[in-house]
Amino acid sequence: MDIIKATNPEEEKILEQFHLLLNDYLNSNHRKKVDLITKAFKFAYNAHRGIKRRSGEPYVMHPLAVARICCSEIGLGSTSICSALLHDVIEDTEFTVEDIRNNFNDKIASIVEGLTKISGGIFGEKASTQTENFRRLLLTMSEDIRVILIKMADRLHNMRTLSALSPGKQYKIAGETMYLYAPLAHRLGLNRIKTELEELSFKYEHPEAYQQITQKLALTAESRKELYHSFIEPIRHELDKLNLKYYIKDRVKTPYSIWKKMTTKNIQFEEIYDLLAVRIIFDAPEHLENEKDMLALEKKQCWDIYSTITNIYKPHPDRLRDWVNNPKANGYQALHTTVMGFTGDWIEIQIRSSRMNTIAERGFAAHWKYKLGEIEEDNELNHWILTIKEILESPEPNTLDVLNTIKMNLFSSEIFVFTPKGEIKTLAQGATALDFAFELHSELGYHCIGAKVNHQLVPMSHVLKSGDQVEILTSDSQSPQYEWLKFVTTGKAHSKIKARFRKDNREHLKKGEELLNEFFNKLRLPADTENIQVLLSNCNCLNKEELLLRLGTGELELNNTEAEFFKKDNQNLLVKYWNLTFGSKSKQDKEKEIKKIDLKSIHQLTDESVQSEYHLSDCCQPIPGDAVLAYVAQNGSIYVHKRQCPIAMKLKSSDGDRIVSAEWAVHKKLSFAAEIEIIGLDTVGMINQITRIVSDEFSVNMNKLNFESKDGVFKGSMTVYVHDVDNLNRLCTKISKLKNIKSVTRVEHHNRLVALEE
Length: 758
Fold this sequence. Notes:
By secondary structure, the chain is α+β, with helices and mostly antiparallel strands. The protein has 5 domains: 9-164, Orthogonal Bundle (Hypothetical protein af1432), CATH 1.10.3210.10; 211-366, Beta Polymerase, domain 2; 380-504, Roll (Ubiquitin-like (UB roll)), CATH 3.10.20; 506-566, no CATH class; 670-757, Alpha-Beta Plaits (2-Layer Sandwich), CATH 3.30.70. Helices cover 48% and strands 16% of the residues. Strands 1, 2, 3, 4, 5 and 6 form a 6-stranded mixed sheet that branches. Strands 12, 18, 19, 20 and 21 form a 5-stranded antiparallel sheet that branches. Strands 13-17-15-16-14 form a 5-stranded mixed sheet. Strand 7 and strand 8 form a beta hairpin. It starts with 8 loop residues before the first helix and ends with a helix.
């Protein structure tokens, strides 16, 4: 079939990319439907002719790049490649789904239509108002997994070309990617794509931290290389005796995973000792015709390699992970162990066959027959998709709640537990006995009163561990309690409990909604997310539903006490130096807030503006020196969050068009609240020494001192008022140099939120 003739350098570049796509396809194991792919390319080329991307390149380069990712990085075939080439045609041109169907076939038309629906759903510009489109996306995914796989490729290419967008758009897309796409890629087994999505998101959200860690990795590369070669030399010597075809490669921890560990554990780069891991990949036997025998031999070879290694190095007794006999829900198989090298370093070793490695890198989904009905019943990934469909049978009131519930099912870590009859079940790490009850059956969950774990009686909130055998205990008189939502961790249990409450408490919720609206009308305030969040925090409610229920049943009343929350600036932690009182806003300040806000420029957080125009969010307590962004509420108020704050990540996913760039420009005239945690040996006069440094040497004000001692060790926290991060770090360093002090760290409030979420 004739292809377009290049008449200029731009068209030559397009043709070059198309030939690279064909080359990738011809080197794959798929049937060679070159004519169909060429036809799809010509159709897309003509449909997008003359249209440019924001980077200035021809638009058709984008679907070409997406098609190449589908082919070479996920391993999809001609149907997916054609769908990728055509994925923006319906949305961006005059062509319809019927044109696609008439020119190609029903499968391609169906996938392209599904991709078009996604672009208007949770991934679109008006995500927060399009619950039904998000549900349609997930239902489409459950019918043909290729829709979401192509969307993954589309997002990966958008992330690779993100530099062409404004900083505000970069934060929105990077946050959305980290919040939803990366976990979803992991759940689908797309490990390589998941890693790159995380790295690119981190690079755009925290460019300074990314640059610093990348430079430190480069500086320590030579020493890691020496450690790697000395470590694998004796392993090679022994593996050669097994008559295996294998290769060994090193795997260095990514900048994002290093940063995540640094921030969650409050440690420095130099304190991370597991930067290096070793991967051993061996060729599976090909001469065996029986697939069952081949898989059994594969497992045996994994354990033979493990035995060989542990004859050389001593293994860590608690770090053996057998995903060979018990694959992860996304199909991942490997044997992981951590051993002590001769240099005293702990090094993780991953053992997998070439088949296991392909699944680990490209994803189990690429090996499926794609229609749901053709997938084996006991496939764990199929089970996960069916769980998603079950959650969607009782959708939440708004998209963000749906997103949060679905995200609960995307967590990476898993445990394996057994029923009394010995049947194995896979659950998210941190799952409780009540989660397990809902996993087995909704009615078991609704009537659960406790459980027997390994024949021992435990409460329903008991956190399960891998290998536990669990028997659920029930009572006909039991019914769901709102407190259950505080300790269930799986999306299925969460959605089932909330659905039951909505059904049983419909009248109470309706009355609560009326009382809530009446309260805000009296105050002449909108019942928006920000104002409701203030009530949730101050009334100690888990979510809006609990607030409405307590209002509707009369357990809670909104009166003058609650009205006071909105008369003073409770969320702003900014204080004048030596003056810890908050001034109320003047009418002029409020008018400044509601004026038209520039969403494209970088907002400068100056001494004056942080007092009058911005709110420093209580959820993460940002101070000068922290990487931040700003969120413009519907009433015009601007809230400043740390970029890694989980609340900010949700806002980027639901209201990304309201995210704006912000940077500090204060001049040490003001003080900001920060909490520090101190751990050390309990000796006489220790607290006096600490407070003397804070108040005398640094002239820093403080409050909320709380110290506890047990078995000769004390743990304390205090809130101090500092100018910026540098001021706080110098204070922590000074305290840490006191004798018998073991650690001094800043308490990151967003880490607490992450812990609660995960």
